[in-house]
Amino acid sequence: MSGAAHRKNMTFSKCVLCPDGHTPANNRNIDKKSAVSSLDSLRGIVTILSKHQIMNSSDLDLILEKAQEAFVAMNAYALRRRVALMNTIADEIEALGAELVQTAMAESNLPEARLNGEKARTVFQWRSYAQAVENGYSLDASIDTANPQRAVPKPDIRKTNVGLGPVAVFGASNFPFAFSTAGGDTASAIAAGCPVVVKAHPGHPKTSQIMADAISRGVAKAGFPEGTFAHIFTETIEEAQALVSHPVIKAVGFTGSNRGGLALVEVANKRKEPIPVFAEMGSINPVFLLPGKLSTAGAELAKQYAGSLTLGVGQFCTNPGLLITEDNPALDGFIEALNQEIVNIVPAPMLNAGIAVAYRGNREKVIGQSGVELVAVAANEAADGQGAATVATVSGVDFLINDELQTEVFGPFALIVKCRNAEEMLAVTEKLHGQLTATLLATSEDLASRRELVAAIQNKCGRIIFNNFPTGVEVCKSMHHGGPFPSSSNSQFTSVGPDAIKRFTRPLSFQNWPDEFLPDELKNANPLGIWRTVDNEITKAAL
Amino acid sequence: MSGAAHRKNMTFSKCVLCPDGHTPANNRNIDKKSAVSSLDSLRGIVTILSKHQIMNSSDLDLILEKAQEAFVAMNAYALRRRVALMNTIADEIEALGAELVQTAMAESNLPEARLNGEKARTVFQWRSYAQAVENGYSLDASIDTANPQRAVPKPDIRKTNVGLGPVAVFGASNFPFAFSTAGGDTASAIAAGCPVVVKAHPGHPKTSQIMADAISRGVAKAGFPEGTFAHIFTETIEEAQALVSHPVIKAVGFTGSNRGGLALVEVANKRKEPIPVFAEMGSINPVFLLPGKLSTAGAELAKQYAGSLTLGVGQFCTNPGLLITEDNPALDGFIEALNQEIVNIVPAPMLNAGIAVAYRGNREKVIGQSGVELVAVAANEAADGQGAATVATVSGVDFLINDELQTEVFGPFALIVKCRNAEEMLAVTEKLHGQLTATLLATSEDLASRRELVAAIQNKCGRIIFNNFPTGVEVCKSMHHGGPFPSSSNSQFTSVGPDAIKRFTRPLSFQNWPDEFLPDELKNANPLGIWRTVDNEITKAAL
Q1: What are the Aldehyde dehydrogenase domain coordinates in residue numbering (chains A, B) (predicted)?
Q2: CA contacts within 13 A on the Cβ side of A149
């Protein structure tokens, strides 16, 4: 087999498998013995899907050895080089031709317009995270100057954020660009100074390969080491575990199911050196429809809610799959209006056959629970692989005693919880698991009269929305995409927006360090011209 | 037994055990059923040490019910009230009379001057963390304004940090004030808006009770709910586990041994809802003595190093217990000078008998390893309960193959690793476990010629020190006290300095939220007058 074939599959500019393709290994940075033993114990064999070549544990060692070398190298570079790398990768993705979207359409059933938008979003992520590195926001640079006159002399202490080390990224099925190979996890890890090893999502392997090639071209053009980015195809859970278990890997980014995320967390916690897993595992995103709003805008809201619920065949981690409200005559009108919308939604193909089967199974499971009543379903029958919009209701009492009703039904399904009164609505809220988002459809008077409820809702979510819907996740500094467990494995960090970079950094303090050997962001002259906290004042001034 | 006795022991202003002492329970915020079942499974029985009253699992439930109520209440208060609470607690601690230091001297064997300094440090922590709340640094407030004209309308998104929920704190033996009941973990959790339940350290129970009473007086004077702070005495590991397992607890702060910290991490990970544990578990804090520095300042350095090593009978998590250097003739002079210092150090009482026994045992264990040679020991024999300063050497090769040589010997013990050359020194560095600190004793020429070594050292520690010693941990914004595993369980957060507050917060985003219902820090007018990131610019301006 030619080196060129390997090269393409592994998205290294040189192949790590062939003797003619790679630089001799430098083992210094890797504890080979413990790496191999942990891999052996997991029977880790990583295969290259596109050619089904067997990639054994020593191949993974070589990939991660390159990643470790790249980590050392890229942290010796000036920060502006990292910014240039990210902008170069953004250029490469932007320059990709129609093949990208056509391939993703074929692999994911997502429509062209949506994929064009997602491509633009992906490019924007790389550029805006590069901007956050350039303006120093991801560094949180701070300086406390010395005071030798103090009774106990005060040293000079300065702090910045440094990369954790090589990061393993597991992409999602529902965003083949923005949350997959070239998605937010990869962009934010690189922004943090961490090389990335992506496990390609099996749902869209060709799309992933096109993206991986674009990243590798960017890495080469920017003059970064080949190990800055690697892309591997694995077929079994054991292979994914081998990657997470490898001692070179220092953090994990994951977007997907609760089961998948928790499996990685378990592996990461069992390591000799446990590592953080930032898993965004989705949620049912409760919508609270309050009485004032219901009485004034019920029919219009029903239309908007149906639109958000069925957008993209409901295949969003922010899909509003639960509506909590009080049972009253106005609610009947809302449900009737919702039914009018839902019956007219034409069932559409889901991301893949497995997801469509799971949607039906989970939907039936919820509908089969005690007290659940079906109130609306798309009139056209769903063909194989399609998802039909469906709405059911249940009483607050039945919801309170049955945790199964909080199961995420990934797809266009909503459960409406009809509470008897405000007190029951509060009890239902306090029973909720952690959520990525919560939405209030309310008047100002509703908010003013339900402060306790609003506080309880805030305590359950990562983003709280007023008279809007959760199914757009804006890429910006103020976005928090994450939430209390189990919506994410770590509620303290976002996976969207430039603050996502901080997932892959840790603070490092320098005490009495000579100016010339400090990182640029901590030098007296402030050569980067960034905002810093100096003796508790925020300033761009030089010292 | 009188309500008053309970009251004092539990540091609630009202007793939770006696019918006459407490307000009727409001169960709404607690999932009582799951709380009790998880406690039962752990056979959790919490006892009040000072009176040896049995506190069963339902007593713990009551304490945590109060904590949850306080969490809800304190997050509805204006931020300035939290600042006032913290300053009031600082005043109460500052006002404590001679009894505090006298009690701590008796319980910990620490000298008066040290304890007076530690008391001032503790007060400073409360005040400076209050300042960080007041100036908004702990909130990271940011605003991205709406753009309704964009093709896909851009919503208004604003983000602040909110408290995680009630926090369990486990104090340390070696800092009875600054890292115990009223220490940095308690201060930073309250600063984050989280009620605290402290498990009193058994090594200094009376000291802890005096501090707890001061905090409770502060809570009452500031008008905060009684559940804002609770102080419990436990006797077994099961009791500590019951606290960490309780569903109301949302995070843990711990300072102490590796074994203790990891046990809590394990319990926290096994919960139905896993929670973060911020455990600072100590390290051996390598000192790198580079050739240029050794040749120019060997004897002076030996004196300074001996001082840092034996300060406080070596009982600091930042004690520099490992010295890594190159074997050359100048090193013999350094070791001889060090020996001169060490032999003259008079053995002093350690914190308690158990710690003195452990010191001897761990020291003997390291000395007994292959290739280890004793080179200096205090001339005066150590009595029971005392620790004698001790220094040993080992070759780089022996160190590389023996992980036991990285065991923390808590006390005035140092191991000198003699490397054959620069390459071996780099290999030894890369073999090191994660450390709180690393120190370079070096000239500028040493730094310039050893860039690879310096990068490798930075990768192993949370704070890197140049020609200074690690045994002072400055309380300031730029301090990072934490480091890669196993020196801490979470390298991304500090346990010293106002950034420690962020351990107990999570971001919360508000989308399209009405101005009047936003938290003050996110309101258009910026009524708190704090720095905020508005549309990617840092500013104090109103919108």
Answers
A1: 50-505
A2: 0
Catalytic residue among B69, B107, B118, B280: B280
Strand stretches in A122-215, DSSP E: 142-144, 157-163, 167-170, 196-199
A94 in active site:
no
pTM reported for the whole predicted model: 0.90
Q: What interface predicted TM-score (ipTM) does this complex get?
A: 0.91
| pLDDT recorded at residue A25 | 30
Bond into A486 cis (ω within 30): yes
Tokens of B423: 């390459």
**Average pLDDT of the segment spanning A474-481:** 98
Q: Give the separation between CA B187 and CA B152, rounded to whole angstroms.
A: 44
State the Cα angle at A213 between A208 and A217, rounded to 5°. 150
Specify whether the CB–CB gap between B47 and B243 falls below 8 A: no
Active-site choice (B15, B69, B239, B317): B317
B369 touches B330 (CB < 8 A): no
Report CB contact under 8 Å: A144, B474.
Answer: yes
Count the neighbouring beta carbons within 10 Å of the beta carbon of residue B141: 24
Dump pLDDT digits (tens) for A33-84.
333 333 222 222 232 333 333 456 788 999 999 999 999 999 999 999 999 9
Say if CB B432 and CB B425 are below 8 A apart: no
Chain A hits for B516, CB-CB cut-off 8 Å, are 444
Lowest mean pLDDT among A164-168, A308-312, B237-241, B341-345: B237-241
- Residue B271 burial by Cβ neighbours in a 10 Å radius (0-12, 13-18, 19+): middle
A105 CA to chain B: closest CA distance, Å? 22
Hey, how many other C-beta atoms are within 10 angstroms of the C-beta on A28? 15
- pLDDT tens, residue by residue, B335-387: 999 999 999 999 999 999 999 999 999 999 999 999 999 999 999 988 999 99
Give the residue carrying structure tokens 């090589």.
A166
The DSSP result for B305-335, as a single string, is HHHHHHGGGG-STT---EEEEE-SHHHHHHH
All domains of chain A, ordered by start, with CATH? 3-10+43-281+496-500 (3.40.605.10), 286-466 (3.40.309.10)
CA distance B318 to B172: 14
Nearest CA distance, A240 vs chain B (angstrom): 21
Is the N-terminal amide bond of A347 cis, ω within 30° of 0?
A: no
Task: List C-alpha distances in Å: B157 to A11, A45, B463, B514, B522.
Answer: 37, 44, 35, 11, 10
Of A317, A341, A408, A424, the active-site residue reads A317
Q: Which residues of A touch B490 (CB under 8 A)?
A: 276
- DSSP letter (8 states) at residue A434: P
Does the annotation mark B461 as catalytic?
A: no
Pairing between β-strand B505-511 and β-strand B157-163 as defined by DSSP bridges: antiparallel
**How long is chain B?**
543
Three-state secondary-structure class, residue B163: strand
Handedness of CA A225, A231, A237, A239 (dihedral sign): negative
Closest CA of chain A from B52, distance in Å: 36
The Cα–Cα gap between A229 and A96 comes to 18
In three-state secondary structure terms, A437 is: strand
Chain A contacts of B461, Cβ < 8 Å?
508
Contacts of A414 (CB under 8 A, 6+ apart): A305, A309, A320, A321, A322, A323, A390, A391, A392
Measured CA to CA in angstroms, residue B74 lies from A429, A468, B123, B279 at distances of 20, 29, 22, 26
Contact yes or no for B476 and A512 at CB 8 A: no
CB contact under 8 A, A506 and B516: no
Cα–Cα distances in Å, from B209 out to B48, B50, B295?
Answer: 11, 9, 52
Backbone region of residue B512 per phi and psi (left: phi > 0; alpha: psi in -120 to 50; beta: other values) = left
Closest C-alpha among A32, A464, A143 to residue B158:
A464
